[in-house]
Amino acid sequence: MKTTINWTGDASFRATTGSGHDIQMDGPPDHGGQNQGARPMEMMLVGLGGCTSFDVMSILHKSRQDVTDCRAEIEAERADTVPSVFTRIHIHFHVTGNNLKEKQVERAIRLSAEHYCSASIMLEKAGVEITHEYTIHNG
């Protein structure tokens, strides 16, 4: 896996992923940025959310659950001192589908958190407390 980060001026950077996708990152105006892209720490949450959501959907599909939508809302707390590392992250899954089995949704989230999501497991090993919650919606 490979990524290249190029400075584009002020506090702005463009990341190019190994798969050929560009992502703009920028700092807030009070830190020299122009708010033209996501903050790097936001990108870490995006990576975590994408990783665990991919796992959860894959597991639910393999268990033949009729999922029509899945949304992960992620909230994080950071340390007040430098470095401002994540200290707590809470992930709330909203899973929508037809006749979804609660045990299957709970199992998919647990398996992602404990066995499959590399981002989640890596952050927990670094001391970040990660909690999960889910709501099942019919439809």
Automatic annotation (TrEMBL):
<feature type="compositionally biased region" description="Polar residues">
    <location>
        <begin position="1"/>
        <end position="19"/>
    </location>
</feature>
<feature type="region of interest" description="Disordered">
    <location>
        <begin position="1"/>
        <end position="36"/>
    </location>
</feature>
<dbReference type="Pfam" id="PF02566">
    <property type="entry name" value="OsmC"/>
</dbReference>
<dbReference type="InterPro" id="IPR036102">
    <property type="entry name" value="OsmC/Ohrsf"/>
</dbReference>
<dbReference type="InterPro" id="IPR003718">
    <property type="entry name" value="OsmC/Ohr_fam"/>
</dbReference>
<dbReference type="InterPro" id="IPR015946">
    <property type="entry name" value="KH_dom-like_a/b"/>
</dbReference>
<protein>
    <submittedName>
        <fullName>Putative redox protein</fullName>
    </submittedName>
</protein>
